[in-house]
């Protein structure tokens, strides 16, 4: 089974999901490639992948099933003046130089919309592809991060702070092409995730 997944899911969600699935269907073989949402959607349209795990870009031939919700957080070094806070507002956050996501990522558009809803203009000093790179920049003293709270952030000694938001999560979807023939293995995998409501 060919999977296209965003980098965020490579360290925990997909390995844990596949491990559980293989206990029921041990003969299944997986081939996994990591990429950004836009390329995964393109791969699904071009029949490169059986299933994708990524953000949402509307396409009539694709089915999107929400499977994972990730909170947006602020990320700071442990000695930062914000580090003793449990929660901060976006109004507080925009007073600092920020490290966030590359503009062409779906998640970057979500963050942009959140700031726009609050009529705020963030000041970015660096934009990165994923939480591992954002965490690395913050770990080296580059500003304050805004990111989805993923296992990548645990790679560093950083303080993760909740944000006061109405919409405070990123949604990741299981995606497949409804026009394509869906193999028995792919159908079983989709059903397994739906039944078990995996949300790590």
Descriptive notes:
InterPro entries: LysR_subst-bd (IPR005119). One of its GO terms (molecular function) is transcription cis-regulatory region binding. The protein is an alpha/beta fold. It has helices spanning 13-24, 37-45, 90-93, 106-117, 131-139, 184-196; strands at 2-5, 31-34, 51-54, 62-76, 87-88, 97-101, 123-128, 144-148, 159-163, 169-177. Strands 1, 2, 3, 4, 5, 6, 7, 8, 9 and 10 form a 10-stranded mixed β-sheet that branches. The longest helix is centred in the C-terminal third of the chain and has 13 residues, at 184-196. The protein starts with a strand and ends with a helix.
Count of domains: 2
In helices, the fraction of residues equals 25-40%
Tell how many strands the DSSP assignment holds.
Answer: 10
Q: Any idea what the CATH superfamily of the largest domain is called? A: Periplasmic binding protein-like II
Low-confidence blocks of residues: none
Rounded mean pLDDT is 92
What amount of the residues lies in strands?
25-35%
Could you please say which CATH topology of the largest domain applies here? D-Maltodextrin-Binding Protein, domain 2
Give the terminus-to-terminus CA distance. Answer: 22 Å
Give the helices and strands as they follow along the chain.
Answer: EHEHEEEHEHEHEEEH
- Give the count of helical stretches: 6
Assign the CATH class of the largest domain.
Alpha Beta
CATH architecture of the largest domain: 3-Layer(aba) Sandwich
Largest sheet: 10 strands, mixed
- Secondary structure class reads alpha/beta
Computed Rg: 18 Å
Specify the overall morphology: elongated
Domain LysR substrate-binding: 3-193
GO molecular function: transcription cis-regulatory region binding
Keywords: Transcription, Transcription regulation
InterPro entries: LysR_subst-bd
């Amino acid at each position: 089974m060919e999977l296209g997944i965003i980098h965020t899911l490579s360290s925990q969600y997909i390995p844990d999901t596949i491990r559980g699935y293989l206990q029921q269907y041990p003969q299944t073989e997986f081939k996994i490639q990591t990429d950004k949402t836009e390329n995964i959607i393109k791969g699904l349209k071009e029949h490169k992948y059986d299933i994708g795990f990524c953000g949402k870009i509307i396409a009539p031939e694709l089915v999107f099933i929400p499977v994972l919700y990730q909170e947006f957080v602020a990320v700071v070094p442990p000695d930062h003046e914000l580090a003793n806070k449990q929660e901060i507002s976006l109004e507080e956050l925009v007073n600092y130089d920020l490290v966030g996501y590359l503009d062409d990522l779906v998640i970057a558009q979500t963050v942009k919309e959140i700031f726009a809803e609050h009529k705020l203009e963030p000041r970015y000093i660096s934009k990165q592809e994923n939480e591992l790179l954002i965490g690395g920049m913050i770990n080296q003293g580059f500003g304050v991060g805004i990111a989805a709270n993923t296992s990548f952030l645990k790679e560093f000694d950083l303080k993760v702070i909740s944000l006061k938001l109405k919409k405070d999560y990123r949604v990741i979807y299981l995606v497949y092409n409804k026009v394509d023939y869906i193999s028995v293995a792919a159908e079983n995998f989709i059903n397994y995730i739906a039944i078990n409501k995996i949300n790590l």
